[in-house]
Amino acid sequence: MSLAAYACLPARSRGRRHAEPPAPTRDAFQRDRDRIVHSTAFRRLVYKTQVFLNHEGDLFRTRLTHSLEVAQLGRSIARALRINEDLVEAIALAHDLGHTPFGHAGQDALNDCMAGHGGFEHNLQSLRVVDALEHRYPQYDGLNLSFETREGILKHCSRANAERLEAAEPNGVARRFLDRTQPGLEAQLCNLADAIAYNAHDIDDGVRSGLITVEQLSDVELFARHRREALAEHPQLQGRRVLYETIRRMLSAQVYDVIDATRAALEALAPADADAIRKAPPVVAFSDTMQAQSEDLKRFLFRNLYRHPQVTQTTDQARQVVRELFAAYLERSAEMPASYDERQDRPRAVADYIAGMTDRFAVREHERLTGRRGIA
Questions:
Q1: What was the pLDDT predicted at 233?
Q2: Is-contact 126 96, C-beta < 8 A?
Q3: Collapsing DSSP states into helix, strand and coil, what is residue 39?
Q4: Measured between alpha carbons, how far is residue 262 from residues 2, 19, 80, 257 in Å?
Q5: What are the residues whose beta carbons fall under 8 Å from the beta carbon of 37, sequence distance 6 or more?
Q6: Which domain, by its residues, includes 345?
Q7: Which member of 153, 222, 322, 347 lies 3.0 to 4.6 Å from 293 by CB, making a disulfide possible if both were Cys?
Q8: Residue 249 domain-assigned (yes or no)
Q9: Alpha-carbon distance 135 to 126, whole Å?
């Protein structure tokens, strides 16, 4: 399939921070994807929390399975829009590499700990992972990914962080946060595929955990409509098959909606190339109706799952583990590996070390350093 003119084309990539000869059998974005898959940070995602901590059940999503689902959804939509599937996949697989153990609770706690030292944000940390913290190659730190992949990884960025990144890399990946332009379509698509994926799998995991019920979800139009349709077409369905079929239909409806709405926006914009996309307002989006339904589902999940007492009890414990780990390493940096202990900026070294931990390693380290089990 030929790519559209507005797709990010590997032959027109803005390149890597360290020049390298091209690979004989892979283009630049395929090479990026492969480097991400082989990275240490990618393997760690299998033991990092999505919503439920890793030890709470084998079938709940982790950061790794979430990233794979984002990549699958992203590639399906990219194919229909004739944009670069390999770039979408690379961004999707890397977008959570900087996430802490214990999900957003860990990130919030680490950000509090780093309040006087530049803060902590997982999107920025994902960029740090691929730019500096992976040590796999003799010529440079990081994975030396293409500009377009790095641009997609940096989904959010404060102005202060953008200015700091821009000073180190003029006209680099942070520039768009200063001049208020957009990333390429592939990066825009990954942002939306991320939201589609976690809404769907958080329903599945939430019902599996028993913290939310199908009956509660009947008040959410996006779910209720597709459940009614599933049962009308398959009245014999029972148990989890009803849930699976409902989620499958929800996902399909959202994917087709994004494709239709984005095609209409592209037709109106008529961009000549990827640079025209960057200068335009955001292009990849839901229709107004689907956007409203998606936001309704997010509100439901926030109230009933993410703020469920059982979830908040565990995440409160997780925050305390991160805070106590930070304090312990800050006081006794020799407890960290030498590559972190020897760094001059000790708070950032501690943050990098903790952010790279899996849930279970963080729990073990906390118990070793404090003598207490931090998470029941």
A1: 96
A2: yes
A3: coil
A4: 18, 34, 10, 8
A5: 93
A6: 312-370
A7: 222
A8: yes
A9: 14
